[in-house]
Design brief:
alpha+beta, 521 residues
Length: 521
């Protein structure tokens, strides 16, 4: 007569232990320490959990812990540390607690495996716990590694974003120093790409671009949630081999090659190219350069810009927390480019931005509600960034001349030619006259959609559609910052001064404006 097949013979015990080890390994492959602990609890009926060296659970156990169980775990951890044992078992109040370290994890931060079960403890419990330590150790180390990798990725992303902020604000040397700890190194000449796609897939696209764009810096845009910013070496022909998912789902704008110190210029170029890409079947466009107004005017612009910005340059902060002249100039440039989104670009609170804009208006005597004053400040800032050498100090006075006004600069014949070139795409014979009419009316009404719709007796959506058509023709962004709106206003003013009869028909605005500063929104 055969005996019970479940009899505790050595052969049966070895087979069952082997099965248990396989089950432990399968549980570990399912998802780390959690499934292993749950399997142990189900197999033994014990409360099984990981604790630190003080006996405190390091993750929520599968079942609630009572005070007695916690106390036993703390006592076991303390005895294990004091006596430097390989394991310890404590019997108290009808409970048995077994505590042992994970294999190869005897560092101060490594957890301990604890199991609490009512007496008498199952005889196979110590062996099962010992067998589980190997898989738990590997699972715990893998989980720690993944957590560290996530922290490193977050830290690296923050560092790369900080480098981007520094480059866009002209702090090239500091950006190079910080970027030196990362790879790849920042090149001397760059091409900037702005990639617009669904925010939900931005992380996936970033990973795919990182794999194919060697030597490039790729950062989620801090201003727009649906944009990726890519900085690629610009000393060779651009590589346009994009992942299929990127080419099919995104629009891509590319700048021309610019020095690293002019990354902000490259960003504006790529943004304008992006506006052109939205109207192309290939969903990609490169920036089409046009003459710069500051360079077109020349030396006279440098003298005018220096005088225009001199109140800010002479400004001294009264309190340590107040902005100095450099911060005010950076704020002015950022706000002109991004308006309310300058808070994300500068990493400041919107109240801080509003206060700085108020200070800038008071120093320069401007009304930044008016597009005319915005355009003047934009030209002055761009002229100083262009490094046009001003005339020697005192030369104008010795010649009996005064500094020119902005209208006098815009009345120069070469500026008139520049202005006609700016408007040529929207005034071509094959373009409906309503496109130029809407654009000039919109510019004259401080770029406000509602008043423009009223002046032209059309709907607001019709105004937006016509302006979108203007963007495609001009290959420049108008409705989304950074915008070419200031150049277009200056070109319109130059045409009014030079040849009023050639100005596209538009409704003259009132000199007063009730537009709200975007920064206050």
């Amino acid at each position: 007569m055969h005996g019970d097949p479940r009899a505790d013979t050595p052969a049966v015990g070895r087979i069952r232990r082997a099965d248990d080890v396989l089950d432990l390994q399968r549980a570990a492959r399912k998802g780390g320490t959690g499934p292993v602990l749950r399997w142990l609890a189900g197999r033994t009926g014990a409360t099984v959990f990981l604790v630190n060296s003080a006996g405190t659970p390091t993750c929520p156990p599968h079942a609630p812990l009572g005070d007695a169980e916690r106390g036993l775990a703390m006592s076991g951890a303390r005895v294990l540390a004091e006596r430097r044992l390989g394991s310890v078992a404590i019997d108290q109040d009808g409970l048995t607690c077994i505590v042992l370290p994970l294999d190869g994890s005897r560092g101060a931060a490594a957890p301990l495996l604890a199991a609490v079960v009512p007496q008498p403890a199952p005889p196979e419990l110590p062996l099962l716990l010992a067998d589980a330590t190997s898989g738990l150790s590997l699972s715990w180390l893998a989980e720690q590694t993944r957590r560290k990798q996530r922290r490193l990725k977050i830290a690296e992303a923050g560092t790369r974003e900080a480098v981007l902020h520094l480059l866009l604000n002209g702090h090239t040397s500091v950006a190079r120093q910080i970027a030196g700890a990362l790879r790849p190194a920042l090149p001397a000449t760059v091409r900037v790409y702005v990639i617009e796609g669904p925010p939900r897939v931005r992380g996936q696209l970033l990973g795919k671009l990182t794999d194919v764009a060697e030597g490039a810096w790729i950062v989620p845009c801090p201003v727009y949630a649906d944009h990726l910013f890519m900085l690629a070496p610009g000393d060779s022909a651009p590589a346009r081999v994009w992942p299929p998912e990127l080419a099919a789902a995104c629009f891509i704008g590319e700048s021309s090659a610019v020095p690293l110190r002019e990354t902000a210029t490259g960003y504006a170029q790529a943004f304008h190219a992006l506006a052109a890409a939205r109207g192309r079947p290939e969903r990609w466009a490169s920036f089409m350069a046009s003459p710069d107004l500051a360079l077109t005017i020349g030396l006279a612009a440098a003298a005018w810009a220096e005088a225009f910005l001199s109140p800010i340059r002479a400004h001294r902060a009264r309190r340590p927390q107040d902005p100095d002249s450099a911060e005010l100039l950076a704020t002015a440039a950022s706000w002109l480019s991004f308006h309310a989104r300058a808070t994300a670009h500068l990493n400041i609170h919107r109240n801080t931005l509003s206060a700085r804009l108020t200070c800038i208006q008071e120093l320069l005597g401007l009304d930044l509600h008016r597009l005319a004053d915005q355009a003047a400040m934009a030209l002055a800032l761009r002229t100083t960034a262009a490094d046009i050498p001003p005339p020697p100090e005192g030369d104008a006075a010795r010649a009996g001349k005064t500094l020119p006004t902005l209208d006098e600069l815009l009345s120069l014949p070469r500026v008139g030619a520049w202005a006609r070139q700016q408007f040529r795409p929207v005034t071509a014979p094959d373009v409906p006259a309503c496109i130029a009419e809407t654009l000039t009316t919109w510019l004259g009404l401080d770029a406000r959609i509602g008043p423009t719709a009223t002046a032209l007796s059309i709907s607001a959506s019709a105004v937006r559609k016509r302006l979108t058509r203007s963007e495609a023709l001009l290959k420049r962004s108008l409705l989304r910052s950074p915008s070419a709106i200031h150049d277009q206003w200056l070109a319109l003013r130059a045409l009014e001064l030079a040849e009023p009869g050639e100005v596209p028909r538009h409704r003259r605005p009132s000199r007063e404006s009730t537009m709200t500063l975007p920064a206050a929104g």
